[in-house]
Structures are given as C-alpha cells and as structure tokens.
C-alpha cells in the first residue's frame, strides 16, 4: 500500500478477514502503527494466509487532497499529510532534509518527503508527467542528501543558496532554491484567483495580477524553460476557471429551479451585464481587456502597477454605472466604489500577499482540533 491508495472517507480503515482475530476478539496479526504507514507490505488481507506487517489508520481530517490543474489544462490530485499520531508535520523541509543528511532520526521522514513531492507536483506537474515527476523529485531529495553530506565533510554551509542538486519536474531542471521560490510564487499567485464562481470584472483584474506576478518573477529569476513552465501552468489554470464559469442562461435556469426569480435586462444598450441583478461579467472581450491590463505589468516596478490601477479605474467605471451605481448629489457612491475596488487591488501588489481560504484540514494543521466547535 502506498499513500496514493488511501480513500477519502470519515476514517481510513483496512477491513480484515476473520483469521486476524483470536477467540477473545483481539487482533493477533495486525499492528496499527501509522509511523510505518508508507512501508506496508502484504497489505491485501482478503487473500488467504496473507497478513499485513503494518496497517494504516489515519483520520481523513488529517489528510489533504488537493485538486490541481497542469499546463495541459487537465486536473489531477495530490495527497499530503497534516498530522500523524498527533504530531503536526510543519517543519521546514530544508531542516528536515539537513537533519537526515546528518544522520539524525526524523520523525515521519517519509511523510515529509511525500508532502514535499506533493507540493512541488501541485505547482508544476500535469496529468501526463505526474508519475515520473514523483520519482524524479524523490531522486532529487536523495541526491540532495548526498550533496549535504559532502558539504558537511568539507565544512561547507548547507544554506539553500549553496545547494546545486537539480530537481527535474515536467522535464525542466530546477535547483532547490529555484524550486522552492517558484513554488511559493505559484502558491501566492494562485491564491488570488477566484475559483468559487460568479466572476465579476474585478475578478478578471485579479487574474491578470496573478498572471503578471508569475511572469515578472520568471523574467527576473528563471531561465527560458523554467519561465515557460510557470507561465503555461498559470495560464492554463486561469483558463480553466474562465471556462468553468457557466453561461448566464444556465445560471438563470438554476435559480428558477429553486424558485428565485430573475428579470432579464431588456435595455438593448446593455453592454456589460446580461442580467442587472446578477453582477457577472458577461462581456468577455471587455473582461479580457481588464485582465490584460494587469497581466502586462512589471511587478518589480510599482509605478507600472500604479499606471494599470489608473487605467482600471477608467475601465471599471462604465460597468459600475450599468449596474446602477452612480453619484447623486452628495452621495458619491460611484467614486467611492471605484476607489474601493482599486484599493483592494493595490493590496495584491505585495509579493508576499497570499489570500487564504482554508479547509478544515488546513486550519487543523495550524490550530489543532479546537476548531471543531465552530463547525
């Protein structure tokens, strides 16, 4: 059994046949020990005379299943582990690998390896490269340990900047620093993108910022092959989000089925919203123009970003007016809304900005089970 064969249920159980139990009902041949879960042998206990050496038992709330989109636009899933036998797996990967290279015992080392592989695959693999990437990343970790051992013997620091081991992902080589830094950039950029549906024009602006941040980072820090992988993956993910947005007619029919009445706009001059009461961007060309405004920004240059913000204010104004937001007398609702949206976008310029919408699994990684009361 390996970590990718675990089903997502309330609890992950391995159901056993009768020969695992003695007359008193005690388990005689099965040992429940999650610390060895990645090294299970003879796990098919449904066959006669086959017994497991170890059986995995991990609550599903301690396992994270992440759906990802690769540069081919297709989805795949990676599995990582938040907690094993009460221990949260939150140590820095470099510290874990360095400790292993020094010959120290690292609790649940195989799980840390699995989590590192999952994190990298999540950001750079696609469905066709995943299996090979998992093997090559693990090989990279083994090679890294050997390099660290050599450095220790020579008195060389194992700072991440000094490590030259190559990791091959989706056919592209990265050093550990390039891999970790690029993965962080992808994480932060992807966090900006609205994947919950119901996209308005400001969501397209945010997607443009996500694309631009990845592109700007690549131009300054990566070679051409590496840039291409990051940019194509980010573009595919954004296109997946756009393509998954249902047609407005489908949305209306869905609302009607639950007895919510929506009046279609009858104004022939309607340009930005097919339905005024649903603020969804239906002028795709205009939405693309807004996205491109931010995608083409140099995110190492704040003036370049400020220029895009001013252009955005002009672009978003007619969409807000069509939605019924206008200035009347001393009520400057339109000006206020334009400034409000622009200021929200300005917060995304920070290279360390990351929007967090956490699942219960990820929250428990940080805070433990105390959050159960808030469910």
Q: Which regions contain 5 or more consecutive residues with pLDDT less than 50?
A: 1-55, 367-375
Q: Number of helix segments?
A: 11
Order of helices and strands: EEEEHHHEEHHHHHHEEHH
> Tell me, what's the shape?
elongated
Number of E-type strands: 8
Number of domains: 3
Describe the sheet with the most strands: 2 strands, antiparallel
Overall helicity: 40-55%
Q: What does the radius of gyration come to?
A: 25 Å
Instruction: Calculate the mean pLDDT score and round it.
Output: 81
Widest sheet: strand ordering: 1-2
What structural class results from the helix and strand content?
mainly alpha
Strand content: 5-15%
What is the CA-CA span between the terminal residues? 32 Å
Report on this structure:
There is one protein chain. The chain is mostly helical. It has three domains: 1-58, no CATH class; 60-170, no CATH class; 195-349, no CATH class. The protein is 46% helix and 8% strand. It has eleven helices and eight strands. The chain has helices spanning 93-101, 109-124, 130-154, 176-192, 201-221, 224-244, 248-257, 284-295, 302-322, 333-346, 360-367; strands at residues 63-69, 75-81, 83-84, 87-88, 166-169, 172-175, 327-328, 331-332. The strands form four sheets. The chain has a two-stranded antiparallel ribbon. It has a two-stranded antiparallel ribbon with strand order 3-4. It has a two-stranded antiparallel ribbon with strand order 5-6. Strand 3 and strand 4 (87-88) form a beta hairpin. The longest helix is centred in the middle third of the chain and has 25 residues, at 130-154. Residues 1-55 and 367-375 have low confidence and may be disordered.
């Amino acid at each position: 059994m390996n970590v990718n064969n675990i089903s997502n249920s309330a609890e992950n159980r391995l159901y056993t046949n009768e020969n695992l139990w003695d007359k008193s009902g005690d388990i005689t041949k099965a040992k429940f020990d999650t610390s060895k879960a990645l090294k299970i042998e003879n796990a098919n206990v449904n066959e006669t005379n086959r017994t497991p050496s170890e059986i995995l038992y991990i609550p599903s709330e301690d396992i994270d299943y992440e759906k990802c989109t690769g540069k081919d636009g297709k989805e795949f899933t990676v599995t990582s582990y938040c907690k094993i036998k009460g221990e949260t797996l939150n140590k820095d990967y470099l510290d874990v690998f360095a400790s292993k290279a020094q010959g120290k015992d690292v609790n649940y080392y195989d799980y840390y390896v699995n989590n590192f592989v999952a994190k990298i695959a999540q950001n750079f693999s696609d469905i066709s490269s995943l299996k090979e990437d998992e093997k090559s990343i693990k090989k990279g970790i083994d090679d890294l340990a050997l390099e660290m051992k050599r450095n220790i013997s020579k008195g060389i620091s194992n700072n991440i900047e000094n490590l030259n081991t190559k990791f091959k992902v989706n056919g592209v080589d990265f050093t550990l620093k390039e891999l970790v830094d690029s993965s962080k950039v992808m994480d932060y950029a992807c966090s900006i993108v609205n994947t919950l549906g119901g996209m308005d024009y400001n969501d397209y602006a945010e997607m443009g910022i996500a694309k631009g941040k990845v592109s700007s980072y690549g131009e300054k820090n990566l070679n051409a092959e590496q840039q291409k992988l990051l940019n194509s993956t980010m573009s595919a993910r954004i296109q997946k989000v756009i393509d998954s947005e249902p047609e407005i007619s489908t949305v209306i029919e869905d609302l009607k089925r639950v007895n919510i009445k929506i009046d279609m706009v009858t104004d022939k001059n309607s340009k930005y919203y097919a339905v005024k009461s649903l603020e969804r961007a239906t002028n795709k060309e205009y939405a693309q123009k807004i996205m491109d405004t931010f995608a083409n920004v140099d995110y190492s240059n704040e003036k370049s970003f400020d220029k895009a913000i001013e252009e955005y204010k002009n672009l978003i104004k007619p969409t807000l007016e069509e939605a019924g937001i206008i200035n009347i007398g001393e009520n400057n609702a339109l000006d206020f809304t334009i400034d409000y949206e622009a200021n929200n976008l300005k917060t995304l310029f920070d290279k360390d900005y990351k929007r967090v919408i956490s699942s219960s699994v990820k929250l428990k990684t940080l805070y433990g089970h105390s959050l159960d009361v808030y469910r």
